Amino acid sequence: MNRRFLSLSGLIAPILFVFTTILGGAIRPGYSHMSDTVSELFSPGSPNRFLLTTLHTLFAVLLVLFGIGILKFVQRYEKSKRIGIIGASAFIAMAVLNIMTATIFPQDPWGSPSTFFGEMHIILSGVISILSILYILLIGIWFHRTGISPFFGWYSIATLAAVMLTAGWFMSSIGSPLMGLSERVTILVGFQWTVALQYVASHA
């Protein structure tokens, strides 16, 4: 597959996610970006769920393609290849789980009885968080050790610290009027790292 297309997928995916979230909020009456989570847009019975789930799936597929591009990029180098491969694989796994949390295992609507699928959504979301920490750390270490971009290695550590801080804010704000905002800040911190990775990898 064309290397440029794989690389651009890492830039297009975050843009598509932001577009999908804004669109979902605009076409759902009463939805609040400040207090409602993104996953609520894909809950069973949600307005325009098919459209939004389709767009979210496309976003996640683009992330998978970008992850494949990063994996191929890592495989070109011998130094610290194992760390890079594990990091890229964790990125791909995170993207695949993103598809599952919006389609197969959507979040239960707030206030509704808990279901198996809703419980799985919570579990998989936790796995996604762990994978996100893992790939930021490992890919950052790989860039530093290979000497391709030591700066990006330190940038990854800084991003990881920011992700953990914002994730802590989100966890503490669950059920509060700022739950949606804290989740979006956490997501955007991770996305800016993805865009930076796309830039560094495409110019290496």
Question: Which structural class matches the secondary elements?
Answer: mainly alpha
- Overall mean pLDDT stands at 94
> Any idea what the shape is?
globular
Helix content: over 70%
Number of domains: 1
* Rg over CA atoms: 17 Å
Q: Compute the number of helices.
A: 6
First-last Cα distance: 19 Å
Oligomeric state of the chains present here: single chain
Number of strands: 0
Taking pLDDT < 50 over at least 5 consecutive residues as the criterion, the unreliable ranges are: none
Strand content: under 5%
What is the string of SSEs from the N terminus onward? HHHHHH
- Main beta sheet: none
Helix/strand layout:
Layout: H1 3-27, H2 49-75, H3 81-102, H4 116-146, H5 150-172, H6 179-202
Helix pairs in contact: 1-2, 1-6, 2-3, 3-4, 4-5, 5-6
Structure description:
The protein has 204 residues and is mainly α. It has one domain. 75% of the residues lie in helices and 0% in strands. The chain has six helices and no strands. It has helices at 3-27, 49-75, 81-102, 116-146, 150-172, 179-202. α5 runs antiparallel to α6 (179-202).
